[in-house]
Amino acid sequence: MRTAHRQRFRLSGGTELSFVTAGEASDPAVLLLHGFPSSAQTFRGVIPELSRAAYVIAPDLPGFGESDVLPAASFAAFGRAVSELLDHLAIGPRYVYLHDFGAPVGFHIAMQEPSQVLGLIVQNANAHRTGFGPQWAATMAYWSQPSPENEAAATTHLTFEGTRYQYVGNVPPDVAARMPAESWEEDWRVMSLPGRMDTQRALIADYGNYVARFDAIADYLARRQPPSLMLWGRHDPFFDLSEVLSWMRALPRMEAHIFDAGHLMLETHSAPAASLMLDFIRRTRWAGERTEEPEGASQT
């Protein structure tokens, strides 16, 4: 188990990203992409274990955690920022962890360089229309008609209580009781800083552009069939459980595990998640290396 290090990197446009690394650079890389409303702090419970077999990179996305805001926030811009960080760190093949807002960022990176993807780890991340339940109606109305009134309806969750709900919403009381209030209190503190709410509103609007790419993502998954591991909190109030089946249809060899947890599953189930991730990385790493034989190599 290696010590995690927090660092800062200045992007070419001047914005600074804060990120955490752990492990040996010679090990396969794992890019951990958090969602709303958190930061790399989401992964505090899995980074130490993952560092036993992987080189972990966990950025705070722009406008989250300790990272600066971008002049114009979008998932494509986030993808470019994280890609620039990966280039700076000389990261080659990597596993990509997709969660919530991290999914559009991760797909931007994966689809730009599909040959560099060792595998996907999917945790309460939506990439199919089946994931949208009735609670998405106001947001979808905003995408189709971005009026001030529709924006107000689509952003009602940008409050302290809405931030807390990301953690405990729809979660059984005994599971919710295991989550420290400090997590959402820190998220809300960061969201209340200058410029941060503008980032959140921009991303809610831009998520509609991500949804418009679902067909292209489906094509990518069908053609590439990356090794994949699913870790899903079944009490997620935002992404319907039918999304799990859509992922499994898209990736028939996906290994799937459903937990008695919520949208931010790692808050309560980091230990079993880390164990499964380590096993997945070790198995698929060696399988990938076995297939990378030079042309003309014989097999017995």
From TrEMBL:
InterPro entries (alphabetical): AB_hydrolase_1, AB_hydrolase_fold, Haloalkane_dehalogenase
State the PANTHER family in the record.
BLR6576 PROTEIN, HYDROLASE-RELATED
Which GO terms fall under molecular function for this chain's record?
A: epoxide hydrolase activity
Q: What is the official name of this protein in its record?
A: Pimeloyl-ACP methyl ester carboxylesterase
Q: Where is the AB hydrolase-1 domain?
A: 28-269
Q: Name one Pfam family in it.
A: Abhydrolase_1
The opening ranks of the lineage are: Bacteria, Pseudomonadati, Pseudomonadota, Alphaproteobacteria, Hyphomicrobiales
